[in-house]
Amino acid sequence: MKPVLSKISSLLLGTTLAVTAIHAADGELSKVMKERGLSEIDVIRAAKTYNPTGVKDKYVVFSSGGQSGQVIVYGVPSMRILKYIAVFTPEPWQGYGYDKDSLAILRQGNVRGKEINWGDTHHPALSEIDGKYDGKWLAINDKANPRIAVLDLEDFETKQIVPNPVFKSNHGGAFFTPNSEYIIEASQYAAPYDNNYHSIDDYKESYRGGVTMWKFDHKIGRIKPKDSYTIEMPPYHQDLSDAGKGASYGWGFTNSFNTEMYTGGIEIGNPPNEAGMSRNDTDFLHVYNWKKLAEVAKDPKNVKIVNGHPIIPMEVAVKNNALFLIPEPKSPHGVDVSPDGKYMIVCGKLDTHASVYSFEKIKKQIDNKEFIGKDPYGIPILDMKKSLHGQAELGLGPLHTQYSNVDGEVYTSLYVDSQVVKWNYKDLKVLDKENVHYNIGHLAGMEGKTSDPQGDYIIALNKLAIDRFQNVGPLHPQNHQLIDISGKTMDLLVDMPLPLGEPHQAVAIRAEKLHPHVRYKMGTNSKTGKQHIGKTLAGQERIERDGNHVTIYATFVRSHINPERITVNKGDLVTMHMTNLERAQDETHGFTIGGFDQHASLEPGETTTMEFVADIEGVFPYYCTEFCSALHLEMMGYMMVKDPNKKYVSATKMKMKTMSPEELKAEYDKAVAVNAATDSVIQSVVAFLKANGFDKHETVANLVTDAFDQYGQIPAEKKKADEALKSGDVEKAILHEGMIWQLMVKTADVGIRAKDTLVTKIATKQSPAAARGATAFAEGGCNGCHVIGKVSSGPDLTGVLQRHENGEKWVSKFIMHPETMYDDAYVKGMIDYFNLKMPDQNMSEKETKDIIEYLKWIDENANLF
Ligand code: RUQ
Ligand code: CUA
């Protein structure tokens, strides 16, 4: 065997399985490699990122969705997309912006009373405790209409949008402070704080930059605008920010460009912005003590109120020794604080260096009031050289930096060179470079900006994809590339096309830190987390009319919507409260009424409301939009809108052949008999579950609860069937019996899943050999004919070792050389019965031995199959 194949196989299969599997893999693997033109290193990279079905990722990434106004969730290392979360943009799948409750969240983002239905998301941020991700909340900024949104990681939904009352754009947000006390939002393009016209000639006087510190309530996951404040800053274009931690806890850092305060005018013959804004050799890193300023802001004397929001004027911040500037190489981009908070790395797009600032050196100058001067607004300037730990020459266009688990080791993106550079910010040495395609912007490390970076991988978020993917027209997908950083040198593993927005930045968290739930407490408004006013339980469904306001309390459960007929008058305001009564995992129902631009997604236990004016006459089918069950298409009803000013004549009834009483009775008897038979299957499953202590296993117990949710509805249905029969309405009785059968099928469906799960939990543990045997049995195709516990296209193998004298030998021989035994009387009989011959599956002696062990394990657990 080729050594590389054994290496690959052990990667793919784990060492215990390697030896057996190699036999199968050797020929097959080289064949596939040849056919697909894959090199050995390709296969190793594939093995490093491949997740077999059911296997989950180690990290979860939250990426900004750029101009889509959404958040994209995917896994690492598989790079499989898990979800798009609606944030600033209506999103129909989640019903976001289409039902009343989510629309209320979207409308929180109105700017000056105007509806804004998109956003330019840049920087997602995960909440932190002690500088480490806690997996509770996610915040993200909208650069275009300066806003911050908060998402709850218990259900991955947007819960709050907060517009900035004074900024006209932002960029340097969202960034959490180390204990999620605040979320930092820095403005980008300086503009007047008020909403009035100010001539561009008054730029220096009337336009301002700034940093808003949004107070965050970590317990409930909401920004508290009333307790928040903004630090006024000069009309430089503030850019990215980061919060100090550890040694620099309490401080914030925001860099800037256009300290020239250039205002363009290309149309009147002035040189363009890009020339005027990059004229100076240096711009300013803003250093501010947010902790102190939070106290300062509490005294009304210290703030001025603009648009109802407190601003700390620059002179107040300066007087309190809480705002400073340090020169930084021109047009910088990222400022990234080290895990211990002692250093901040600033990269300048137009400079080949990364500048490593030392907080200790900065603090010393601040404490000694040692300044080289003041800017035009009176803010003290520190000496750049005295603030620097040092600079490292990295390459062209350095932008952003991420930290790793190795002390001093960092990764920086090089936009112009299209590279990631690995270097050491302590000794300032470059260690390795890796090419990416093309023009990388941000890069995302695994918890790479926390005080506990994990290393493992770096994701390159490239600005251009060019020729990497199938051409889908002039608008190309985005390209995220996964790089393995666990070795001495970097290794680019895989490309992922992202067909949405320009994802600026992404943050990655260990998957084990996330604990999302699978269902809501019954009747929850997911947007508020509280009980919904429209919560409706089974039996409480109703339609209420108050003047021309019709309120419907509806429930959803596989496979019907209650009510199924709604008649309203043209012009009525229709409020429909909908509760998904399901407890079963992933049993979401969707809801729409055609023609009214309405859609809702109802997760198990959720209640939501849609509201619209029924302003057109007609008949409007409504239905469940999620394929939720075998009778999903039947999950429908009609809304009929009548014009109150019109007279309607009912149609002449058609004459159709009806069934005779005898035929009806026969159908009824059949329905009852089928139900009795189905029920006995259910009872046998129930007996099995009880006998094997199902309630000791939580997942099984949950499934059984789901099953009994359905089963519990049967007595009421039976009562209706019997009443109908008694009153002579056999037709109706048949329909109720039919409903009983539906409920039984749903019960059995979940019940059998519960039984299978229970079997895996209580069966004796497989020996390594038996486990290998199970794999060989499945992969060798034995299960095509033999189903354990059942006679299928071949005999049941439970007890097969006991059926023959010298059973193990007999079975081994039969597996390895079946053709030599076709004349054996028993085998002959079987061939006749099944009309099939046991084929030679080319099992090796080792595999055969393992299969025998597997068969022994089956016999040990025969009672479970
Ligand atoms: S940015 S490519 Cu909007 Cu974060 Cu740097
Ligand atoms: Cu409910 Cu489809």
UniProtKB/TrEMBL annotation:
Keyword Heme part of the UniProt annotation: yes
Location within or outside the cell: Cell envelope
N-terminal signal peptide: 1-24
Location, primary (coarse class): other
Key words of the record: Copper, Heme, Iron, Metal-binding, Oxidoreductase, Signal
GO cellular component: cell envelope
Enzyme Commission number(s) of this protein: 1.7.2.4
Oxidoreductase listed as a keyword: yes
UniProt domain Cytochrome c: residue ranges: 768-859
Record GO terms (molecular function): electron transfer activity; heme binding; metal ion binding; nitrous-oxide reductase activity
Protein name, per record: Sec-dependent nitrous-oxide reductase
